[in-house]
Each structure stands twice: as structure tokens, then as C-alpha cells.
Design a protein that fits this description.
The chain is an alpha+beta fold. It has 2 helices and 3 strands.
């Protein structure tokens, strides 16, 4: 699969696959369309960035692995009750502070 994006002119997806009228041999398929409108939902922008070869709106696999390495012990501690998961109303200054702290 090859995806091309030509400076806002069009998107092309080049595939090789079987077609219903010729199943024994692979055939090249090209899907071309104008780029989506600017009013894409947030995740649409992420997908467009990835499909056009960008990485500004996404993370690499090693970055995702490192993030989970850091977060997993925290989630485990919350689940085990080792560290309290304090709740507070949205828009507030956060959970109450212990006495004697600023």
C-alpha cells in the first residue's frame, strides 16, 4: 500500500489486490479523491497526518511503549489502593491539600 498526498490537490491510495472479474492474478488498484474538508473532527486530522507520512499528531511505537512503562505502575498502585486516587469537582483548584502544606 502506498499513500500519496499532493499539496492539498488530492489523495491517492495505491493497492495491489484481486478484482472480482479476475481473481487468479493480482491487479493494481488506485483510489484517488480530493482531500477532506477543513472541518474534520480531531481524530480525522490525526489519521490524515499519519496517512500523509507525518508524525506531528501521533507518537512512534517506542514513545507509546515508554509512556505505558511509566503509567502502568501508577495505574496498578491506584487499583491496589496503595496510592489514593483523589477526586475533586471539575474546574476546582484540585483536591484539598494536607494541613501544613502550601
Amino acid at each position: 500500500m502506498i499513500v500519496y498526498r499532493r499539496l492539498g490537490k488530492y489523495l491517492s491510495l495505491h493497492l495491489t489486490g484481486g478484482v472480482p472479474w479476475n481473481p487468479p492474478s493480482p491487479s493494481p488498484l488506485t483510489l484517488t479523491a480530493p482531500p477532506p474538508a477543513a472541518d474534520l473532527p480531531a481524530y480525522g486530522h490525526v489519521l490524515l497526518d499519519v496517512l500523509s507520512g507525518g508524525s506531528i499528531l501521533s507518537v512512534r511505537d517506542d514513545e507509546a511503549e515508554e509512556a505505558w512503562r511509566v503509567v502502568t505502575p501508577v495505574l496498578a498502585a491506584w487499583k491496589a489502593g496503595t496510592v489514593p486516587l483523589e477526586e475533586y469537582p471539575a474546574g476546582s483548584a484540585g483536591p484539598p491539600r494536607p494541613r501544613g502544606t502550601r
